[in-house]
UniProtKB/TrEMBL annotation:
SUPFAM superfamilies: Metalloproteases ('zincins'), catalytic domain. This is Peptidase M13. CDD domains: M13 (cd08662). InterPro entries: MetalloPept_cat_dom_sf (IPR024079), Peptidase_M13 (IPR000718), Peptidase_M13_C (IPR018497), Peptidase_M13_dom_2 (IPR042089), Peptidase_M13_N (IPR008753).
Length: 650
C-alpha cells in the first residue's frame, strides 16, 4: 500500500513541530522555480497544467475529426482555431472594437449611456454595476437578479486609496493612456487621467471586501419603484432593453451595495458625459484586449501580469486558447474529459469518503459544547440536507444556440458572453435547477453553494495529492477528506451558518449560541492577523477577510481527522515511510498546499483573496490537539499554541 506522501518533497532539516509546511514541502520549494508565466505555483497549478494538457488534446482531436458544421465538436474546434490564428488576429489590429468605440462616442446623455452599458454588457464588457441571476437568498425556490458594484480597472477599491498601492496607481494611468492610444482615442493622455479620477470616485463608494462577506448587509430586496428611487438618474428601462432582458427582470432585484448604486446615480448626474465616454471606451478596450492584436495583448499583460503580479512572461497562446474554450464551452469539453480521465470507481470511493465526513460532522455537531439544543437540532437538520456532487453533472449543458464562426475571434467571444447572459436570464420565473454545476469537471477546485446547500467536487481535483484511489487512507483523508470537510464547514462558517438547510438566509441560531460562535471566530481573526506569509515578509494577513476560509480549513482538518478515525474503525494504522497514520494525515494536508509565490502576487492576493496564503493554510494544524499529539510538540516549538489559546469550533 502506498503511503500517499511525496517523501521527495520532505525537508528533514526542518522540524515539523516548528513548521509543518516547510518540513512537508521544503524539498520541493528549494528545487522548484515558478514558471515564467505564473505569479505563483503549487499543487493546484500542477494539476491544472495536467488538466490543461488533457483538454488541449481533446480539443485538437475533436477539431481534427472533421465534425459536422454546427455541431458542438465543430464549435469547439472553430473557437480554438479562431484564437490560435495569430496572424489573422494581428492583421485586424484594432478593427474589431472600432464599431463599439463609435457607439461609445455617439452617447449623448445618461439614458443613452445606460442603454449602451446594457448592450455592451451582453458582449462581456463590465459596466459600473453587474447584474447576475442566482437563487434568492431569502426564497431559495426562485431565481432573482442581483446587482453587484463594479466599474473599476484595478483589482479592488483598496488599490485606489491605500499607500501600499501607490506605485500601482502611478503605473495605471499611463497604462490606460497607452491602451487608448492604440485605438487612437482623442487626447488619450488627458482621457486616461479622467478615467482614473472617475474610477477613484466610484471606488470611494465601493463596499470593502470584508463588508461584502456579510450576506445580511448585502441583501436589499427592492421592487422596480424602489430601485428607481434608490438612484433616479439611472435609466434601468434603457439598460434592460440594451441587455435584452425582459421588462419583468427587475420586478424584484437584490441590490448588494445600495449606497454604491446611489453614489453611481450621483456620479452620472455630476460627472460630464464626455468623461463617461472616456471611461467606457477604456473598458471596451480593456475587456477585449486579450482577443486583439499583439500590441493590445502585450500592453494588457505588461500591466496586469508584470506590474500587478510580477509575472515575467505571457502564457503560451495555446493555453490562453484552451482557457477561452473552457469559458465558452466548458461542459462540452468536460463530458469528454470525464470519459477519459475519471474512472467510475473513483466516484464510488469519493462517495464513501463523503459519507464518513458527514458522519464525523454529525458527531461533532451533536457534541460541540458551545451549541445549544435548538441550534444543534437545526444544524443537524441542515447537515442531513447536504447534497454532494461528485465528478460531473448528471445533465450536460446544451450549447445548441451558441453560434461560433470560424475566423471570428472577438465575435465568438461576444456571442459566448451573450449566450451566458441569455441562459441566465431565462432562469427567471422558472423552477430552480438544482442539478446545475458552477464549475466544469476539468476544474481543479471545489465549492460550497449556500443557496442550494451543496458541496461540489469536480473530477480534476480527485487525483493525487488530493486523492489517490490506490493509496492508504491517511493521506487521502488529510487531502481530499479535509477538503470535503472544508466545504461542508462552509455551511457552518460565519457566512454559511446564516443559511438554513434549504438554502434560505434565515437566523436559526439563538443569540447566545451566535455570540459563542462569534467569539471563536474572532479568536481566529486575531490569530491570523498576526501571521505573515514567507512569500511577502512584513505583510500581515487580513484576518477579517480570510476568517470564513480559515474556519473552513480548521473545520476541514478537525472533521477530516475524525472521519479518518471512523474509516480505521478498531484497526490500528500501519507505519509507512517512517510516519504513523496520524502523522501521514497531517502531512497529506500540508502537501496539498505545497507552493510558492512571487512577492508582487503574494501582496496582491493578501489584498483581495479571502483565502490565507498556502504556507499558512498548511500550518493551520497549530490549532489541533491531534497534531500536537501526533508530532509531540511542546512550548518553544514554532507551531506550539498553548491549549487554552487553541481555537476549536467543530
Amino acid at each position: 500500500m502506498r503511503s500517499g506522501i511525496d517523501t521527495a518533497s520532505v525537508d528533514e532539516t526542518v522540524r515539523p513541530q516548528d513548521d509543518l509546511f516547510a518540513f512537508a514541502n521544503g524539498g520541493w520549494v528549494a528545487h522548484t522555480e515558478i514558471p515564467d508565466d505564473r505569479g505563483r505555483y503549487g499543487t493546484f497549478d500542477t494539476l491544472r497544467e495536467a488538466a490543461e494538457e488533457h483538454v488541449r488534446t481533446i480539443i485538437e482531436e475533436v477539431a481534427a475529426g472533421s465534425p459536422a458544421p454546427g455541431s458542438v465538436a465543430a464549435k469547439v474546434g472553430d473557437l480554438y482555431s479562431s484564437f490560435m490564428d495569430e496572424a489573422a488576429v494581428d492583421a485586424l489590429g484594432a478593427g474589431p472594437v472600432l464599431a463599439d468605440l463609435e457607439r461609445v462616442a455617439g452617447v449623448r446623455d445618461a439614458s443613452g449611456l445606460m442603454r449602451l452599458l446594457g448592450e455592451l454588457g451582453r458582449d462581456g464588457v463590465m459596466g459600473p454595476v453587474i447584474p447576475f441571476v442566482n437563487t434568492d437568498d431569502r426564497d431559495p425556490d426562485r431565481y432573482v437578479v442581483y446587482l453587484e458594484q463594479a466599474g473599476l480597472g484595478l483589482p479592488d477599491e483598496s488599490y485606489y486609496r491605500e499607500p501600499q498601492h501607490a506605485d500601482t496607481r502611478a503605473a495605471y494611468v499611463p497604462h490606460v493612456a497607452r491602451m487608448l492610444e492604440l485605438v487612437a482615442h482623442p487626447g488619450a493622455q488627458a482621457a486616461a487621467a479622467r478615467v482614473v479620477d472617475l474610477e477613484t470616485r466610484l471606488a470611494a463608494a465601493h463596499w470593502d471586501k470584508v463588508s461584502n462577506r456579510d450576506p445580511v448587509r448585502t441583501y436589499t430586496l427592492l421592487d422596480r419603484p424602489g430601485l428607481d428611487a434608490l438612484a433616479p438618474a439611472l435609466d434601468w428601462t434603457a439598460f434592460l432593453e440594451g441587455l435584452g432582458a425582459p421588462a419583468h427582470a427587475f420586478r424584484a432585484v437584490v441590490v448588494r451595495q445600495p449606497s454604491f448604486v446611489t453614489a453611481l446615480g450621483e456620479a452620472l448626474t455630476e460627472v460630464g458625459i464626455e468623461v463617461w465616454r472616456d471611461w467606457l471606451a477604456w473598458h471596451v478596450v480593456h475587456a477585449h484586449a486579450p482577443y486583439l492584436s499583439a500590441p493590445f495583448v502585450e500592453e494588457n499583460f505588461d500591466f496586469f501580469g508584470r506590474t500587478l503580479s510580477g509575472v515575467p512572461k505571457l502564457r503560451d497562446r495555446w493555453k490562453r486558447a484552451v482557457t477561452l474554450v473552457e469559458d465558452a464551452l466548458g461542459e462540452a469539453v468536460g463530458q469528454l474529459y470525464v470519459e477519459r480521465h475519471f474512472p467510475p470507481h473513483a466516484k464510488e470511493r469519493m462517495l464513501e469518503l463523503v459519507g464518513h465526513l458527514v458522519e464525523a460532522f454529525r458527531r461533532s455537531l451533536s457534541e460541540v459544547p458551545w451549541m445549544g439544543a435548538s441550534t444543534r437540532a437545526e444544524a443537524l437538520e441542515k447537515l442531513g440536507a447536504f447534497t454532494p456532487k461528485i465528478g460531473y453533472p448528471d445533465r450536460w449543458r446544451d450549447y445548441s444556440t451558441l453560434e461560433v464562426r470560424a475566423g471570428d475571434l472577438l465575435g465568438n467571444v461576444r456571442r459566448a458572453a451573450a449566450f451566458e447572459v441569455e441562459r441566465n436570464l431565462a432562469k427567471l420565473g422558472g423552477p430552480v435547477d438544482r442539478t446545475e454545476w458552477f464549475m466544469t469537471p476539468q476544474t481543479v477546485n471545489a465549492y460550497y453553494n449556500p443557496g442550494m446547500n451543496e458541496i461540489v467536487f469536480p473530477a480534476a481535483i480527485l487525483q493525487p495529492p488530493f486523492f489517490d484511489v490506490d493509496a492508504d487512507d491517511a493521506a487521502n483523508y488529510g487531502g481530499i477528506g479535509a477538503v470535503i470537510g472544508h466545504e461542508i464547514g462552509h455551511g457552518f462558517d460565519d457566512q454559511g451558518s446564516q443559511f438554513d438547510g434549504r438554502g434560505e438566509l434565515r437566523d436559526w441560531w439563538t443569540a447566545s449560541d451566535r455570540e459563542r460562535f462569534q467569539a471563536l471566530a474572532d479568536a481566529l481573526v486575531g490569530q491570523y492577523s498576526l501571521l505573515e506569509t514567507r512569500d511577502a515578509p512584513g505583510q500581515k494577513v487580513n484576518g477579517a477577510l480570510t476568517v470564513g476560509e480559515n474556519i473552513g480549513d480548521l473545520g476541514g482538518l478537525t472533521i477530516g481527522y475524525s472521519a479518518y478515525r471512523i474509516a480505521l474503525g478498531d484497526e490500528p494504522a500501519a507505519e509507512l515511510d517512517g510516519f504513523t497514520g496520524d502523522q501521514r494525515f497531517f502531512l497529506g494536508w500540508a502537501q496539498i498546499w505545497r507552493g510558492k509565490s512571487r512577492r508582487a502576487e503574494a501582496e496582491r492576493l493578501l489584498a483581495i483573496d479571502p483565502h490565507s496564503p498556502m504556507d499558512l493554510r498548511a500550518n493551520a494544524v497549530r490549532n489541533l490537539d491531534e497534531f500536537h499529539e501526533a508530532f509531540g510538540t511542546g512550548p518553544g516549538d514554532g507551531l506550539w499554541v498553548p491549549e487554552d489559546e487553541r481555537v476549536r469550533i467543530f
